[in-house]
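Homework help thread (please don't just give me the answer)

Our assignment gives two proteins as sequence + structure token strings and asks us to describe the second one. The first is just a warm-up. Here they are:
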Amino acid sequence: MDYNDLFIVINCILSIVNLILLIYFVFRYKRSKQGGDRIIVPKADTIVAQDLDDEQLVSDSTCDEAKPAEVLISKVTEDRLVEQLEKAKAARFFLKKGVNLQDLADLLGTNPRYVSYILNRYVGQDFNNYIQQARIEYLITCVERDPDLLNVKFSVLAEKFGFSSISKFSSVFKAVKGIPPSEYFQRLRVTL
């Protein structure tokens, strides 16, 4: 093998390596553009604490207080998610029995942390409270529009409005409205 042949082989190998690196970086760039919903945590000393239905980032320095870490999210993405959340609420996604944070994230086309962030920032509630309040508000709206629902058993209403049981329905109703559903419905019967 002479010098020219060796030169050609080395150039071919270097060209192949460069091509592989180019493909790798292009793929990585496209993936980072598609994965724009990544969360960047500004502090290196944060740990993830997982609740049953919600995730929060908690700083080591504030172990006594569970405080969400700042999520870096573009304003465009925030606005899009808020708009999509309003559309999802109008479509009554919350009536699905057993709906969870991941379901809502999938519906909005993002990840659960972003959904949690949007709910906390724009609604002022965590996921569970948001769902429970939305169900109760919708129930009350339906009952006020259709007073015949005042005569329906609570177990049927609980099922229809996405609650897993009548006891869960009653406890959530009392937590949201401050009085038990029986008392609230009695007051509505008198006024309607």
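The one we have to describe:
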Amino acid sequence: MPDITLINVESSQIHSIGHDPATKTLAIRFKNYKGEATSLYHYSNVTAEEFAAFRNAESIGSHFGKHIKPFDKKYPYVKVDAAPAA
């Protein structure tokens, strides 16, 4: 499991994102209903170009919902942890 540095983003549902181009792994930490950081997921097969499009999208949440989430065969994912370290 790669150790991926996360950057905070402006989104109502996504807290932070990161990418490891060597392993083509996208890391997404989501927010709970209070807006607090929660679960961290790693998505496979995400190229640097795809990550750049995601990172630079006008709406990161919408981009995720349209281009990544529906394609779990192309971008298989694993839950890395349930909450950020204190």
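TA reply:
I won't write it for you, but here's a hint about the kind of observation we're looking for: Residues 48-55 form the longest helix (8 residues).
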